[in-house]
Specification:
The structure holds three protein chains of three kinds. Helices cover 54% and strands 2% of the residues of chain A. By secondary structure, chain A is an all-alpha fold. In chain A, a hairpin with a 5-residue loop joins strand 1 and strand 2. Chain B has eight helices and twelve strands. In chain B, a hairpin with a 5-residue loop joins strand 8 and strand 9. Classes of the chains: A mainly alpha, B alpha+beta, C mainly alpha.
Chain lengths: 262, 356, 558
């Protein structure tokens, strides 16, 4: 325990963690750039950002969310959802939505960082809402044990104790949290995307959210001490494994054992 | 379909009819002739097999060494991380696997390639011969006769009675495995103590919650005030008292008669313990207002006072009546009006007592 | 051997040191007699006969690894704060049992490995018993004289499940704690005594402080002792009965064909222990099982998505999931005489398991009653040659699998991108129609395979070689079978339905009529083995011996 925390403070360990993050995020966005972006975007938006954002919004989002983001039958009003909601939904590719369905799927983001920033600026200008979190809350230097406890009480029932995801009703699901950037995790908590409840700062404090992120990133970078984690899905995948692989190998041996040698 | 027909009328009737006479059967040709293996005829092949077996045993030695090195050379002390544990676990496993598989496959290969592989036939004998049976019957008869149990029913009957009763103490002695249930399941920690209403506090840290903290769409996991100060029986109380607190648009709630003041401005609190078999029903979908139990998928609809809309539960989740105190904190105005959690035999009786 | 005869024989004097030791022991325990009896005992060799051994060896590995774990595990439910080396749980309040399980995983060298060996072999133990029983069922090995051994095997399966469940609960992590919570809920649904049963089991209200210690005692003492006792009974009966064998040339109910115990069979069986151990070690080396550190300590408030029991309890959990609590306006929980009866819990928890185990235990007697077959059977049936039994087995297996799948309904939903509710609806339907479809399909497949066998026995094996005859006809060359291969395909019994017969009073009883009806159901669809006359006819008709036409239409008449 002591040993691990010492190790974490080592500068090389931080780099290793960053590299790990880079590797797993993949795709168009690297963790480093989004983190930098988050830092920049906590400052106020320029008028130009808002104007550009409005143009982008009208061209790409207004079909469903309506002019002025006032909402239509196909999409909710975005007045007062805040910049964090836009940054999460657009940044993870969930918006623009591919098709109507029980839930928006994560996919490669359609807008680049700057465009996402402009869209956030526009929506934030419509009404006060949760802002994009400060860098200091995303550094993964919180208390993992406290975060773990908060995670189990508030999150694990949907996202699974090892953050491997789980099912909700009628085709909806809580996604796995590996590969999700710190910023997006934080934004999801404060905005409650889709059917996820909102965890406002009055419910889970910003420090608590930082602890949760620390916990998630720590278990992700730790990996499983026992070897491959079989999806961290619990006894079902273990049972499947023992029936298919375990018994499979044993049966192969029994066939060899009872066959005649040529 | 095909061009094949052998003209025999019986042939198409591959399905024998009932009661058909026993037809002639193929004779058992006996054991097939023994086939020699390569190693039986070719001394080189035999030598090769011998070397393979020795090699396999050698692998086992290597495996044992891997295990010992991994055990003693890898330090789990200060500075060891998860990766070290994973490495040691993998090496211990590989070492054991080599050590075991080397011996196992070596012996089996030896048996298959070099030991005689003539199949032999052994006669089966009757499991019980008639001779033995008669002898046994005689012995038992003699024994029964010598005890005189048939002639002395008094002895037999008192013995039977005594033996039948003797295990009772062995059952009775387990009477202290647990206390009587009494009405323990009917009450939770939410009941006001000396008129002092219990505040709703956050799980796990126990800080009280203001009504204004609960924004639309949020879900709080709640424990009663003072739960964390308990030492003995903390989990027992927690197992009954945990509550989920949510805020909906007040218009979407349709409280039934008598329950209008159980919520506060769209804030409602429901027991988190499933009425099916007791898992925490903690999955709240803020748009559909459904609560889902992850264990058996019972689904409750918040807008219908947590009526069951899917899954194996049969009864709505109990609601905790709440209000706001002078300082703006949420409090429970009383205990649950019915027992929480899975149903039990005396449940209905307890519910009637609570409400009388 | 009587004293006088030993006195007459010249005294045996061992020459080597090992010989002297052996002789010393032998003279005192009579080992020579045992060796004479068993040393060359014949065991048939077939891969499907090895599953019982897999189970036995898994059990031995369980004992070995379990003993190691007991040295470090502390089954106390007292509160403590974790102070081990796993950072994400540092300082968290938990029970001593969970804390010591974490210490085994992170602070005892090789502890994690032993935990994983123990848990993987537990899963393999129950799985191999299950596969062994499927093999015994589908080959008819449960028939006289082995009915009682079948029952002992069934008891072993239940004990293995009990051992597994008690062990699953010990670490007192969130997963196992929610498992116990479900057990508590099921117990409370038992009419009249349910509440008391729960309070007695948990030593008061759930979760209490007693249950882990009690389960520990059951897990390391009572259940393993019973398993050991049943294994002794099981093996004793195997020795008495001698092993069954598959049908084939030279094999009949009066003999047993195979390899002698010493050296070949002993070497193979002994070597196989090391192989099973090696395979389990490989799984434990590279695949995490029951990562208790992920779940956190038990606390009644949290729960994890994907909370499931280990696979062997899965079918009960699945049945619990499939049961609707409310149909229309009918609630399965209702109040009778002022007391609560929750059939929505009671029915799925008891009925499917009850039906499965009752039918399983009774099956040898059910079948022999229907078939009036009271002969001893030592030669097995190939599953295809007992189509109705095979179909019954497949139907039961499919029924089990539907419940089994239901236990993973949430994972099916997330991994195949379907709705959780739809998975449940489909599985509810399959719960009823799945076994029926399975029965019909399995029976038709078995009959089809029998007809294929018949075809091959009469006309030989298809060689895939097409030749053109001088008059222009194309035919496929068939290679005739040798008599040994042919006997394997034709050497089986194909009983016909037994019509109802009057009893001693000349009356056909109602029960006898039912039996006759079942007998007809059992045997009316049957494919008789080919006879020498048929073979003669098949060959005699053709102008080209050993060349047969491939296509042949046959109709299955009842």
């Amino acid at each position: 325990m002591k040993a691990l925390s010492q190790k974490r403070r080592h500068p090389l360990a931080a780099i290793a963690l960053l590299l790990m993050g880079l590797l797993v995020t993949g795709g168009l966005y690297a963790v480093a750039t989004t983190v930098n972006e988050a830092k920049a975007s906590t400052t106020s938006y320029s008028a130009n950002d808002t104007a550009e954002g409005e143009k982008l919004f009208e061209a790409n989002c207004a079909t469903c969310h309506g002019m002025g983001a006032s909402g239509t039958q196909d999409g909710p009003s975005l007045v007062g959802v805040g910049a964090a909601a836009v940054d999460f939904q657009v940044g993870t590719g969930r918006m623009p939505m591919q098709m109507n369905g029980p839930q928006a799927y994560k996919k490669p983001a359609q807008f680049n960082d700057q465009q996402t920033h402009q869209l956030s600026a526009y929506v934030a200008s419509l009404g006060a809402g949760p802002a994009i979190p400060e860098e200091g809350l995303l550094d993964g230097q919180g208390d993992a044990a406290v975060g773990g406890e908060l995670f189990r009480v508030n999150c694990a029932m949907c996202h699974n104790a090892a953050a491997a995801g789980g099912a909700l009703t009628r085709g909806k699901f809580a996604p796995a949290l590996a590969d999700v950037s710190e910023k997006h995790i934080y934004e999801a908590m404060v905005t409650g995307p889709q059917n996820m409840p909102v965890f406002s700062d009055a419910n889970v404090s910003p420090e608590g959210k930082r602890d949760i992120i620390t916990f998630l990133k720590q278990i992700e970078s730790n990996g499983s001490p026992g070897g491959a984690d079989l999806g961290a899905l619990g006894p079902v995948s273990e049972g499947l494994f023992v029936w298919v692989a375990g018994l499979g190998v044993i049966i192969a041996f029994t066939i060899w054992l009872t066959s005649r040698t040529s | 379909m095909g061009n094949h027909s052998d003209g025999s009328p019986n042939h198409s009737g591959t399905v024998a009819t009932a009661g058909q006479n026993e037809v002639e059967k193929f004779q058992d040709p006996g054991l097939p002739p023994h086939r020699l293996r390569l190693a039986d005829t070719d001394p080189k092949a035999a030598k090769r097999a011998e070397r393979q077996v020795a090699l396999l045993f050698g692998t086992s030695v290597v495996g044992t060494l891997i295990f010992l090195v991994a055990y003693f050379a890898i330090d789990l002390g200060e500075g060891a991380g998860i990766a070290t544990i994973r490495l040691q676990n993998a090496l211990l496993g590989v070492g054991t696997a080599f050590a075991m598989l080397g011996i196992g496959t070596g012996i089996v290969h030896w048996a298959k390639a070099l030991m005689p592989d003539h199949e032999v036939s052994e006669e089966r004998h009757a499991i019980r011969t008639e001779d033995d049976r008669q002898a046994a019957v005689r012995i038992v008869d003699d024994i029964v006769d010598e005890t005189g149990i048939k002639r002395r029913p008094l002895i037999r009957n008192t013995l039977l009675g005594a033996v039948a009763l003797a295990p009772l103490p062995a059952l009775a002695i387990f009477g202290d495995l647990g206390p009587r249930p009494d009405r323990k399941l009917a009450h939770t920690m939410w009941a006001p103590v000396d008129g002092q209403l219990k505040r709703l506090t956050r799980d796990p840290d126990g800080t009280p919650i203001r009504a204004s903290d609960v924004t639309l769409g949020s879900a709080f996991h709640v424990i009663p005030e003072g739960l964390n100060d308990l030492h003995e029986g903390k989990l027992n109380e927690k197992a009954k008292a945990v509550v989920l607190l949510m805020r909906l648009d007040p218009a979407s709630l349709n409280p039934s008669e008598g329950r209008e003041d159980w919520g506060y401005n769209g804030i409602v609190a429901y027991s988190k313990i499933c009425t099916h078999v007791g898992c925490p029903v903690a999955l709240y979908e803020q748009q559909t207002h459904h609560l889902l139990c992850p264990c058996h998928q019972s689904t409750f609809d918040l807008t219908q006072e947590c009526k069951v809309i899917f899954g194996p539960a049969s009864r709505p989740l109990p609601q905790l009546p709440i209000a706001v105190d002078d300082e703006g904190y949420l409090v429970a105005t009383s205990d649950f009006k019915e027992p929480v959690g899975p149903s039990y035999w005396e449940r209905d009786e307890h519910e009637r007592i609570i409400n009388s | 051997m009587s004293a006088s005869s030993t006195a007459k024989a010249p005294a045996f004097v061992a020459t080597t040191k090992a010989g002297r030791v052996t002789d010393f022991v032998d003279a005192r325990v009579g080992g020579s007699g045992i060796l004479r009896e068993f040393g060359r005992k014949v065991f048939p060799d077939h891969w499907s006969f090895m599953f019982g051994e897999v189970a036995l060896y898994s059990f031995v590995i369980l004992l070995l690894s379990g003993t190691f774990l007991t040295f470090f595990f502390d089954p106390s439910m007292a509160h403590t704060n974790y102070d081990g080396s796993y950072v994400p749980l540092k300082g968290v309040e938990m029970s001593v049992a969970y804390s010591s399980s974490l210490d085994i995983s992170f602070d005892v060298r090789g502890g994690l490995f032993m935990r994983q060996v123990h848990h993987w072999s537990a899963l393999l133990f129950v799985a191999s018993i299950a596969v062994h029983m499927l093999r015994v069922f589908f080959t008819g090995a449960f028939r006289k004289p082995r009915e009682m051994n079948w029952v002992v095997g069934g008891v072993l399966l239940i004990l293995a499940m009990a051992a597994g469940f008690t062990g699953y609960s010990l670490p007192d992590d969130l997963l196992s704690g929610n498992g116990l919570r479900i057990i508590d809920g099921v117990m409370k649904s038992i009419p009249v005594i349910g509440t008391y049963a729960s309070f007695f089991f948990f030593g008061g209200e759930f979760p209490g402080y007693a249950v882990i210690g009690r389960l520990y005692m059951l897990h390391i003492l009572l259940v393993p002792a019973l398993i050991l006792l049943m294994i002794v009974l099981h093996l004793f009966m195997v020795v008495v009965h001698k092993h069954t064998q598959y049908p084939g040339p030279g094999r009949n109910d009066g003999n047993v064909v195979g390899y002698p115990l010493g050296p070949v069979y002993a070497a193979k069986a002994g070597g196989f222990f090391f192989i099973v151990f090696g395979v389990i070690a490989l799984m434990a080396a590279f695949f995490t099982i029951n990562p208790i550190w992920n779940y956190g300590p038990y606390d009644p408030s949290p729960v994890s998505a994907g909370t499931q029991p280990d696979w062997y309890i899965g079918f009960v959990d699945g049945a619990l999931r499939l049961m609707p609590g409310v149909i229309g306006d009918f609630h399965f929980e209702y109040v009778i005489f002022g007391y609560t009866l929750s059939l929505n819990v009671l029915l799925p928890a008891l009925v499917p398991a009850g039906i499965l185990f009752t039918v399983m235990f009774m099956y040898p007697w059910i079948e022999s009653w229907i078939t009036k077959d009271n002969r001893e059977h030592h030669v097995l049936d190939r599953p295809r040659n007992a189509p109705t039994r095979t179909a019954i087995g497949v139907a039961g297996f499919v029924w089990y699998c539907v419940m089994w799948a239901a236990a993973g309904s949430d994972l099916i939903a997330t991994h195949f991108y379907v709705s959780l509710n739809d998975v449940t609806y489909w599985l509810r339907a399959l719960f009823f129609i799945g076994p029926i479809i399975a029965f019909i399909v399995a029976k038709r497949v078995a009959l089809a395979l029998q007809r294929k066998d018949r075809e091959i026995a009469l006309h030989g094996r298809e060689t895939g070689r097409i030749v053109r005859l001088p008059h222009g006809e194309f035919i496929e060359v068939h290679a005739p079978l040798d008599e040994y291969k042919r006997y394997k395909l034709v050497g089986f019994e194909s009983p016909a339905p037994l019509p109802a017969v009057p009893n001693d009073h000349g009356i056909v009883t109602r029960k006898e009529k039912q039996r006759a009806f079942l007998s007809k159901w059992f045997f009316e669809d049957r494919v008789a083995p080919a006879t020498p006359a048929e073979l003669e006819a098949a060959h005699g008709h053709h102008a080209h011996p050993a060349v047969e036409a491939a296509e042949e239409s046959k109709s299955l008449s009842h």
